[in-house]
Amino acid sequence: MIPRKGLIWILVWVVAVMTIATAVAAPDKRAARVTGAQLMQDLAAAASAADSRQASATLRDMMSSHGRSEAPITEAGAVALLRSLGVDVTTSAPERVLSRRQADALVVKFRGLLTSLNEAQGVAVGHGPSPDSLDDCLAEKNHGSCVDCCKALGGEASTCAKTCFAINKPSGSEPLP
């Protein structure tokens, strides 16, 4: 029979281990959410990188009029923001909070659209031919080239790396190492 004092210590130890395990295993939902101000800043950086003065000016005006909201933005809010910039987008879950990964994908698409519009108007952006969309990046010969291409469109390194894994996937007939 275990003395009462020993049972208490075992119980304390089990509770501590369970608490630590739960904290490590639980995803940080706050870090994954994007605020309206963060999305506007990301879009403004993409517009600046694509040398789109009109989109940059519109976003600056929006940021000054909407203030610095720290509330997470929903997909409906992101759709409204992008539509005000002339981008035709839709969502199937307007009430869902926009994740960082979704925001990064929107920024990449937005910058690709601005870059293609600038090139169509004859505006030189950068020294070499820039990619029009993420599809151009996925057509690159290797993962590193794809990631560089994606980052040139305004994506974050981690999101681009995850997106570009598609070109490294073996076909069904290839054996895995």
Which SSEs are present, and which pair or pack?
Blueprint: H1 4-25, H2 29-32, H3 36-49, H4 53-66, H5 75-84, H6 100-120, H7 134-138, H8 143-152, H9 157-163
Task: Write structural notes for this entry.
The protein has one domain. It has helices at 4-25, 29-32, 36-49, 53-66, 75-84, 100-120, 134-138, 143-152, 157-163. By secondary structure, it is an all-alpha fold. The radius of gyration is 23 Å and the shape is elongated. Mean pLDDT is 75; it is low at 123-128.
Compose a concise summary of this entry.
It is built from 9 helices and no strands. The protein has 177 residues and is mainly α. The protein has one domain.
Any descriptors?
single chain; 177 residues; mainly alpha; 0% strand; elongated
In total, the number of domains comes to 1
Describe the global form: elongated
How many separate helices? 9
Mean pLDDT, nearest integer? 75
Beta-strand percent range? under 5%
Quaternary organisation: single chain
The poorly predicted ranges are: 123-128
- Alpha-carbon Rg, integer: 23 Å
Largest sheet: none
Number of strands: 0
Structural class by secondary-structure content: mainly alpha
N-to-C SSE series?
A: HHHHHHHHH
Q: Helicity range of the residues? A: 55-70%
End-to-end gap: 52 Å
